[in-house]
TrEMBL record:
Highest taxon of the lineage: Bacteria
Species this protein is from: Acholeplasma hippikon
Name this polypeptide is given: Lipoprotein
Length: 333
């Protein structure tokens, strides 16, 4: 059980270290393959990760998270309000060459919004960060950064604002050495060993409840392993599970909407793409406050055979301002 969970966690973490709108291609019912749980796990276990170790990859991600709290309509003597927002649209291209100087890591930030507002009877403040068309690039061992965005903070109605328009800086010295390259390369090389597991009768018995959540589709040489978790399945799990429940029983009353979908795409059994998408709505109230947590359209995609993006040229990067202490300079921005 621990091994299979490690597989799913490793895939999830690999995505997060990490979107065009709606990455996931449509699946046809006619392409669904009827397999037993053991056969589904065998297909996953036989996954070939050679492209992960030798090719570049592209990670794309976007999402919209909001959490809020406000007084219930019947509570007239409270002015407490809280709002937390986090929106992002980003991508990362990673290509490990034969050595450190040939490697490229290109992190693009198309959109970022971080907003925190709080109001009470004695306090009112806001912190808001926005960024667009910004990037962090590792090329030829040097790191380059470009920032377009703004920062706003307001305390008791006294705002302080700062904006950054096409700020550009680069490290003065090489920061990605052969030693860092070897460490990163070994992490990729160890993935295949860590993601394989033994399929036993004991394991199948322990995870039999996930069988109906996993479906397999086949189109030509491409297999798609799909894990779909819905609100109804979570509620059923909470209702029927009495031991070692990871969630409080009342969670089912708070859960208003949930879909979680993970797809693993194999091309001739080689890992080709990983997709993840989720929507969530939680609503719960105490005697005075109504609390909402919303996750709209969270999407991740990892492409292990990507088309390389257009990388800024060396001549344009030479114009970036060199900094002795690149990290502290980036933080001071």
């Amino acid at each position: 059980m621990k091994k299979i969970l490690l597989v799913l966690m490793s895939i999830g973490l690999f995505i997060l270290v990490a979107c065009q709108s709606n990455f996931m291609p449509p699946l046809k019912k006619s392409d669904q393959v009827e397999l037993t749980l053991a056969q589904k796990l065998t297909l996953l276990n036989e996954m070939n990760l050679s492209d992960v170790k030798s090719n570049a990859l592209m990670i794309s991600a976007k999402g919209d998270f909001k959490a809020s709290a406000e007084p219930l309509p019947n509570v007239s003597n409270s002015s407490n309000k809280v709002l937390i927002q986090f929106e992002f649209d980003a991508s990362a291209y990673i290509s490990l060459g034969n050595e450190a100087s040939e490697s490229i890591m290109y992190f693009n930030l198309n959109k970022l919004l971080v907003n925190n507002e709080q109001k009470t009877s004695y306090l009112e403040y806001q912190n808001r960060i926005e960024a667009t068309k910004s990037f962090l690039l590792l090329k030829n061992g040097y790191v380059y950064a470009q920032l377009n965005g703004s920062y706003k903070t307001s305390n008791q109605g006294n705002p302080v604002e700062e904006s950054f328009n096409n700020k550009q800086m680069r490290s003065k010295e090489v920061v990605f050495t052969q030693n860092e390259y070897e460490i990163l390369k070994s992490m990729f090389d160890s993935l295949e060993e860590n993601l394989h597991f033994d399929i036993s009768d004991s394991l199948l018995e322990q995870i039999k409840y996930v069988d109906k959540m996993i479906t397999v589709y086949k189109t030509g040489d491409i297999h798609t392993i799909r894990l779909l978790i819905t609100k109804e399945q979570v509620i059923e799990f909470i209702t029927t599970t009495t031991e070692n429940l990871p969630l409080p029983p009342e969670f089912k009353d708070y859960l208003k909407k949930l879909t979680f979908e993970l797809r693993i795409e194999l091309n001739q059994k080689k890992l080709s793409k990983i997709y993840l998408a989720s929507d969530l709505l939680l609503e719960y109230s105490d005697s005075e406050m109504k609390n909402d947590v919303t996750l709209n359209g969270l999407q991740f995609m990892v492409d292990f055979n990507p088309v390389a993006p257009t990388i800024p040229s060396d001549s344009s990067l030479d114009k970036f301002e060199p900094r002795d202490n690149f990290i502290s300079g980036l933080i001071r921005w």
